[in-house]
Amino acid sequence: MFVSLTWLTALLAGIFSAHVTQRLCFPYFWKDLFYLTKVIRYGIRLEIYKMTSRVVTVIDRFVQQAERVPNKPFLIFEGISYSYRDIDERSNKVARVFEEQGTLKKGDTVALLMSNDPDFICVWFGLSKLGCSVAFLNTNIKSRSLLHCFNCCNAKILVVGADLLETLDDILPSLQKDNISVWALKKDCSYPGVHSLLDKMENTLSQPIPAQRRAATSLKTPTLYIFTSGTTGLPKAAVITHLQSLKAAAGFWAYGGTEDDVIYTPLPLYHSAASLIGIGGTIEMGATLVLKKKFSASQFWNDCRKYNVTIFQYIGELCRYLCNQPEAKNEKDHKIHMGVGNGLRQDVWREFHRRFGEIRMCELYGSTEGNLCFMNHVGKIGAVGRSNFFYKLLFKYDLVRYDMARDEPVRTEQGFCVRVKKGETGLLLSRVNIMSPFFGYAGSKQLTEKKLLRDVFVKGDAYFNTGDLMAEDQDGFICFRDRVGDTFRWKGENVATTEVTEILGLVDFIQEANVYGVEILGSEGRAGMAAVTVRPEYSFDGKKLFEHVCRELPTYARPLFIRLQECMEMTSTFKQQKFRLVESGFNPATITDPIFFLDYTTKCYIPLTDSIYQSILNGQQKL
């Protein structure tokens, strides 16, 4: 008896010691184990697809869920609930209409220009059921960029929402000249050559298209094209394969989401966050999604209470807008337990918790076209993800030294990149291999190649260049520091400086333009600023420039500040010098060059005075 007690005491003491050691030395062990187990389980499922050549795609999963829970609400939009069966049958009608037309074959691409609406999903799913790829067009892009989008993804058909049909006025002849068939989500259409879709849907059956029509035999088959701003200027069509769609659809589930969750998505569906993670993730779990036409800070919490929302999607700016709302007594009266998104600043994160309760904020990191994803499954404030020894075995990435002045990675005499130490900031690179392929962009191998760095550590290797500066601390938490190159983020959107530069160059009095982003205290991302030189025979015209940028550029891409220079600064390799311009900011008290501000009140670029500058810093001036 005494011996048994001794052994029992020793066993309990050992367990207690192991527990204490784990808490002190490996505080995130169980959370890491839980998360990695899910990642590995999902990875095995994808590997089975590869071995059997039978891919169960996101649309296949939706059809399965429609059969399993046909009457369960799949989508709630503007107070109306649509069941899994409703969306399934309506998407069948879309498929039937185009099947009867006989103009689409498996593998063709169809462009979709629509605002958030249930029919966005029905058209997307209907075309997917025909085995077509769908190109999501950003509703903010203008005519010149829109035509470019068709060229690079080789779309045969355009489906446009009724509210966006007028945006095609100036390019409709060009589309029709290129034999692109245009369909409007209307019952009748007065535009010559534009087909109406809703009336034909009403007069067709909702019988499903045979599954063989949509069947995919490879994870590498493209299913979507999502346009992203990059360093090349005009929008680029990121190739989204079934592999990427399936990985994104596992996001909510990996964070612990279940079929009982109600997800709130106020983000545009043409973005990968709302479509791949939001819609795809809802389908994977068999949950319900509340879709908002457009984000409203004043309606957000009322919507969440009304629909019993438990998970919401965000970008950093969204949370800041919520924190800027006047405080209310019932702010913590909700059922939300999780937020999933990216770009959440530490100060906003803490304020969000103070105002709205200890909601688990699940930051994630990954570009639309990228081959790497980080997930902050622990919930540490300020981190975009977490890594450890086991994660690095599965996903090969490195942080390398970056020369901001030369705008390129630092290379040794042998030509190889240099890894940074723990805690130091470096350029994030992700190894391209069988486990983490990079599918690039449609329309140009050149664009794809530009995103790759070769001979990084050894001859012949290839890494995806994220264009992001990151740091990894001693505990394995990854923190975002900044973007490099010709892209910056403002209002939750990527702004390609070369595209804005080209648009500014169309103004008759501008000789040269250099576009970059500057930080504004209290604002997320960087605001657009352009250093410009004026042609000798002209003078600066703030009103004309205002009218031009408002006509040609979406709101988030319009330069807030214009800096007039006598000559443009260049690097030793004859590239425009941005580094000093970015560092000098937009303070009129420290810059001798004239600076102008985009003023919507006077509808003109007006001189930036000290008083306007101060009103911007203290948040009084709306940006």
From TrEMBL:
Keyword terms of this UniProt record: Cell membrane, Fatty acid metabolism, Ligase, Lipid metabolism, Lipid transport, Membrane, Nucleotide-binding, Signal, Transmembrane, Transmembrane helix, Transport
InterPro entries: AMP-bd_C, AMP-bd_C_sf, AMP-binding_CS, AMP-dep_synth/lig_dom, ANL_N_sf
Start and end residues of each AMP-binding enzyme C-terminal domain: 499-575
A UniProt-annotated Pfam family: AMP-binding
Main location: membrane
Source species of the chain: Chanos chanos
Domain AMP-dependent synthetase/ligase, chain residue ranges per copy: 63-385
Catalyzed reaction equations: tetracosanoate + ATP + CoA = tetracosanoyl-CoA + AMP + diphosphate; a long-chain fatty acid + ATP + CoA = a long-chain fatty acyl-CoA + AMP + diphosphate; a very long-chain fatty acid + ATP + CoA = a very long-chain fatty acyl-CoA + AMP + diphosphate
Record-listed E.C. numbers: 6.2.1.3
UniProt GO MF annotations: long-chain fatty acid transmembrane transporter activity; long-chain fatty acid-CoA ligase activity; nucleotide binding
Annotated localization: Cell membrane
Similarity comment text for this entry: Belongs to the ATP-dependent AMP-binding enzyme family.
Identification of the protein by name: long-chain-fatty-acid--CoA ligase
Signal sequence residues: 1-17
GO terms, biological process: long-chain fatty acid import into cell
The protein's enzyme class: ligase
Membrane topology designation: Multi-pass membrane protein
Gene: slc27a6
Domain of life: Eukaryota
Gene3D superfamilies the record matches: 3.30.300.30, N-terminal domain of ligase-like
Gene Ontology annotations for the cellular component aspect, listed alphabetically: endoplasmic reticulum membrane; plasma membrane
